[in-house]
């Protein structure tokens, strides 16, 4: 294998094993929450009654929904706690998901590029503005779903502390936010993970943890420049740049 080919085929470690496990937990619990939650919102529909039967009836479906809700809430709390710990330890990559001024300028530059007003595409870093938007949307949605879910799980206790209107308000917010999250994943995330021409038919990075140099050059050039400057080592991990077996 020639040196140029080897350089082109280089792979970089993008996601740690912990992050990949987090994605699996989120993916499984979110799917089960949708399958057991949406039918309750549209309980009069024939397909909803069919799904309720598949899950063993409404009582069983509700408990599956609650258990997965608690699992997702626990994973969310753990994720944030580890993020804060990593920041305290000085791992700068943990802050790379926080939106900044560059995300606004990148969004404007991308719009100009798509409209043919500029020949240069924005140079994205570790996460682009679209990924940050999806991430923080998930965080905000998780907070709303967890808070309203707990209100619905402990209605009597909540009614002793808050006005009674809090219960139906929580039910409305919980159902609508859940439907919004489902549609966001269905339209936004599925496109970026599967239908986007750059990754079609499947983006496997979150499962393998690795990304090719070709994709880094195209999707995260600013991060690649930094890695090359540091002799290919990924932030916070020794010798993170890996070569494929020739």
Q: Bin the strand percentage.
A: under 5%
Mean pLDDT score: 88
- How many helical stretches? 11
Query: Which sheet architecture does the biggest sheet show?
Result: 3 strands, antiparallel
Choose one word for the global shape.
Answer: elongated
- Termini Cα gap: 7 Å
- Helix fraction? 55-70%
Structure description:
This protein is mainly α and 246 residues long. It is built from eleven helices and three strands; from the N terminus they run αβααααααααβααβ. It has helices spanning 3-8, 17-41, 46-54, 58-88, 101-114, 129-153, 155-159, 166-195, 205-208, 213-219, 221-229; strands spanning 11-13, 210-212, 241-242. It has a three-stranded antiparallel beta sheet with strand order 2-1-3. The chain is elongated, with a radius of gyration of 22 Å. Mean pLDDT is 88; it is low at 1-5 and 232-246.
Features:
246 residues; 11 helices; 3 strands; elongated
Task: Offer a concise description of the structure.
It contains 11 helices and 3 strands; from the N terminus they run αβααααααααβααβ. The chain is mostly helical and 246 residues long. It has a 3-stranded antiparallel sheet with strand order 2-1-3.
Topology:
Blueprint: H1 3-8, E1 11-13, H2 17-41, H3 46-54, H4 58-88, H5 101-114, H6 129-153, H7 155-159, H8 166-195, H9 205-208, E2 210-212, H10 213-219, H11 221-229, E3 241-242
Antiparallel strand pairs: 1-2, 1-3
Helix pairs in contact: 2-3, 2-4, 2-8, 4-6, 6-8, 10-11
